[in-house]
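Would you mind giving me a polypeptide sequence along with per-residue structure tokens?
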Amino acid sequence: MGFHGRAAAHKPKITMRNFKEVTFLFVSYLPADIISTVEFNPTGELLATGDKGGRVVVFQREQESKNQPHRRGEYNVYSTFQSHEPEFDYLKSLEIEEKINKIRWLPQQNAAYFLLSTNDKTVKLWKISERDKRPEGYNLKDEDGRIRDPSTITALRVPVLQPMDLMVEATPRRVFSNAHTYHINSISVSNDYETYMSTDDLRINLWNLEITNQSFNIVDIKPANMEELTEVITAAEFHPNQCNTFIYSSSKGSIRLCDMRASALCDNHCKFFEEPEDPSNRSFFSEIISSISDVKFSHSGRYLMTRDYLTVKVWDLNMESKPLETYQVHDYLRSKLCSLYENDCIFDKFECVWNGSDSVIMTGSYNNFFRMFDRNTKRDVTLEASRENSKPRAILKPRKVCVGGKRRKDEISVDSLDFSKKILHTAWHPSENIIAVAATNNLYIFQDKVN
């Protein structure tokens, strides 16, 4: 299944089967600190993960050296900081988790990096910067930082900058709070890089990155009577090239495209994407499995991709009636929906990502499996992220799941899948075939085969 990233025109043809693990990262995540989001920055040089403990870990890609050119693909820990702490809302007697729901990077404008991170209620803008010099020679305090007696100061000193060991600092520059009654499920930065939107179950708010005490409500689907509530917002994203256009998905399996130029409150959508349900497939679980857990614009802005429980769908923005492509992620689970409902797995929210050229899409499954679909050849592959089966620089072998009947040697039975091992969060390098896969509390980074 050949596919290429944006910068791969001069490279030899690569295939999905050649994905190769370049490093295994285990960053002392405690079992409770499950990775909850993964995101490359716009250049792909940095990779950030957030976890249930409110911590953000940033990895930096190794610079290429003549001695070890193969180490170029490796990512090492660059910075670790506590982004959110657990809080308690005394007015509502409500505990607010520290878990990081989403991370979004801003394009780099200077030597520092900026990212947005959010938990259920509060979005924070973080600055990550390097410091390799320190000032020395203060007049009013000594080298230990203690204030000097002014009467002992007899000469004026000029402070100088002295070299020191490189230190990476993460500082919160903005805190955007008190704007959401319900849990924030997504944030998205506009391509004007001046505004971003935060989305909860019933409302979408628009923020200016410079203003923390005011936001504009642009979508509100809360009914006057909450007993009439029939759907919630599950995800939202800005168009990559048009700062006035955004989409949001719902638990009813529909997607709405809105234009902020039409009106200040975008309750009336411009386009409505929904696939009519086949009455022959109607079941007790139909509404649950049709809920969209993630929605992403393609890099070109021409298509959008949605993930529901069993499928990934690609939609053309110019065709609202039905999806352009539908890919079955784990159709063999259709017969297991009853047990998946009982163990709450049916409510898992899987994410989906595009590769840099929009030709391949990736999403997660159970048993630490993740799936890739080539849109050009219509071929797909199932790969596994696990410490037992993956050694550094070993080629990943495709996995197959068998349903009933005789099982071949290299296949795994659908009855022996481990539903506690699930890949909900994945990320794809913006221009190269490098992927990050979060398997519970382990982070794997794979890249295409290096000859």
About this structure: Residues 337-342 form the longest helix (6 residues). Residues 1-17, 20-24 have pLDDT under 50 and may be disordered.
